[in-house]
Structure formats: structure tokens, C-alpha cells
Amino acid sequence: MHVLAFKELRAHYQVVAVCDVDEQRAIEVAGWLRGVRAVTDPAEIWTAADIDVVAICTPPGQHRLQVEAALRGGKDVICEKPLVASVREVEELAVIAAETGHTVMPVFQYRFGNGLQRLKALVDQGVAGRPYVANIDLSWRRGADYYAAPWRGRWDTELGGVLLGHAMHLLDMAVLVLGQPAAVWARVATLVNDIETDDSAAVTLRWADGSLATLSATLGSTVEISRHRFTFEHLTAESGIDPYTNSFEPWQFTATPGHEDRVADALAAHQPGTEDYIGQFERYAIARAAGEELPVTLESARLMLELVTALYVSSREDREVTLPLAADDPALGGLAP
User: Fold this and answer.
1) Do residue 40 and residue 132 come from a single domain?
2) Among candidates 233, 52, 84, 61, which has minimal Cα distance to 158?
3) CB 243 within 8 A of CB 140
4) Which of 79, 101, 128, 203 could staple 186 via S-S, CB 3.0–4.6 A?
């Protein structure tokens, strides 16, 4: 997906190399574009003089060392989620980035759907009013074929289950709109697959202003959907249900009586942008060239990992967990039980 996005953004990127330990796969992907070399040793990427930015799409358990190697090799880094295994590791990477003068952008491509961006604009402008309740549903299907990859379903290599690897996208969408919650309560279970990690969850979230949200997540649904519904004082916003692009249009916005004109005017004024990986990578290229803040930062990854950490702690200890976690909380060092 990254290579195809870069291909669409030729004005900003030139892909010069593809690396995979599977040589035939590296050759295949390199062949999607012209003049791209295929390599099997990541060290060749870290040290290549003609590479400025490295996009890391490897199994999550490899991210921490690979991001550091790329930074110390003088590269800026784009890295898939989950970025690393713990809040502490995010903090370590932030120190290394500062030391080397290079940057890391975690991938949260769902943020850039135009439906979600229109809602964020309404909230940012104060049009939506006070938030009341949000409902988040993730019903996906992951079975034996998915978990046949030996690194999936294991704490040491996938780093987490449905909360970390799947629902994090939908949680990030809610946090983008509402901010970081003040407290969470979660029930997490492994019900669908014979794996170490979780594949089912039911979550409640509470914000400092008293507003609430629920998340239900399963990897055992025959019919796949993703859905968000936000209820505010002045409007209700509901996404579509496509499982992997529900941040895209169409979204339905329904104003409460007396607020129709203001909501309609704000929606009409919103200018849509590019979406998904293309949307994030285009914004990244523009921000990087201008020396401006990246569209997704290490702090974004740290906040999301802290939230997911709190959910696992809540489930294991059967209690509400408040955020932010205490600076000396041992859970900040890793999610694995």
C-alpha cells in the first residue's frame, strides 16, 4: 500500500529501493515501478546515499530496532502501526530522533478520510457543541489464513491483539475528534481464534467533560463493518460502514433544530483533501519540505499506545483506569502479560 501511494505522489516521491527478506517478493514489488532496485538486507537501506526517507512495513516486533537503525543511518522514517511495543519505547525513539536530527511519522491513515475531517472541522469551529456520546463498532473477520503468518497472534511479534492492531485505528479517529479520554474500562477476550493475543473487546471511555463512548470489537464477524456515530449538542454525525474506509465520505450530519444553517454553512465551506495513505503521505511530504510539524507525530503514537495500555490494564485488573497513567506505572514498559 505504501509503494502504491508513493507511486500516485510522483510530484513528491521517487521510490528507489524495495527491501524484503523474501527476494522474490522484493523483486515483485520493485517491479511495480520503473528503475527500482530490490534488496534483501535492510542495512543496505539504512546506509544508502540516495535514500532520504524509509517507510517501514515489517512485523511490529521489528519496528523498534529498525526505526532506530534508520534514524542513526541519517534517514527520516515513516512507520506502520503499531509503532512499537510500549510507551517507553516511543519515548526512546523520540530521544533518538532528537539526537540524530531526523523524524519519525507513525501511520494513522484513517485520520484523513474526508467524512472524519468534516466532523473535525465542525468540532474545531465550535459548531458541534458539547459532546454527549460516541459509538464505535469494529466487526472484522480474521481467521486461520490470517494467523498463518507466524508472527501474528503472538505478544512478542505482533505486540497485541484486536485493540492494538485493529481497533487502534477507530480509537484514533475518536480521539482526533474528542481528545484523549480521562478514564477507560475494558473487557478483552480471545474468543474467535486459537492465539495468544486478544480478538474481542468491549470498552467504555469517559472524558473529563463527562462525555462517553463505547467500543465493540470482534475479529469473528461474517459481515465486516466499521462504524462511528457521534452525538453532540448541536448535531449527530454518522459514518458509513465500509470496514476499512469508514472515515471516507459519505457521512450523515443531522443538525438539531435551530442549528441547521450553521451546520450546513460549515459543511459547505469545508474543502476536501486527499485521503487514506495518499492523504497522509502527501501532507507529510509538504510538511517535511517546509520544515513544519508532521501530520502525525510521535506524540500521537505515544498517546494512542498509552490509551491501549490503559485498556489492557483495565481488563486484566477489572477496574476503571484513569489517564494519563502514572509516570512510574510499570505498564508503560510493555503490553504483554
Assistant:
1) no
2) 61
3) yes
4) 203
Distance set, CA 180 to CA 143, 240, 307, 310 (Å): 32, 23, 8, 12
Q: What is the CATH number of the domain that holds 176?
A: 3.30.360.10
Phi, psi torsion values for 53, nearest 5 degrees: -130, 135
Query: Which residues form the domain of 29?
Result: 2-107
Hey, CA dihedral for 172, 273, 97, 47, is it positive or negative? positive
Does the residue 17 lie in any domain?
Answer: yes
**Looking at the structure, do residues 193 and 211 belong to the same domain, yes or no?**
yes
Report the SS3 class of residue 58: coil
What cell was used for 290? 517546509
- CA gyration radius, the chain: 20
Residue ranges for the chain with pLDDT beneath 70? none
The cell numbers describing 227, all together, are 462504524
Q: Report the pLDDT value the prediction gives residue 213, as an integer from 0 to 100.
A: 98
CB 321 within 8 A of CB 313: yes
Q: What is the pLDDT of residue 1?
A: 83
Q: Rounded to the nearest 5°, which phi and psi values hold at 32? A: -70, -20
Q: Are strands 235-238 and 200-206 parallel, antiparallel or unpaired?
A: unpaired
Cell of 97: 530522533
Decide if 305 contacts 90 (C-beta within 8 A).
yes
Neighbours of 49 (CB within 10 A): 6
pTM score, whole prediction: 0.96
CB distance 110 to 80 below 8 Å? no
State how far the alpha carbon of 160 is from the alpha carbons of 218, 220, 242, in Å: 14, 17, 24
Cα–Cα distance measured from residue 41 to residue 69, given in angstroms and rounded to the nearest whole number: 13
Q: Are residues 213 and 138 in the same domain?
A: yes
How much of the chain is helix, strand and coil, in % rounded to 5?
Answer: 40, 20, 40
Give the tens place of pLDDT for each residue, 149-161: 999 999 999 999 9
What grid cell was written down for 331?
505498564
Residue written as grid cell 517535511: 288
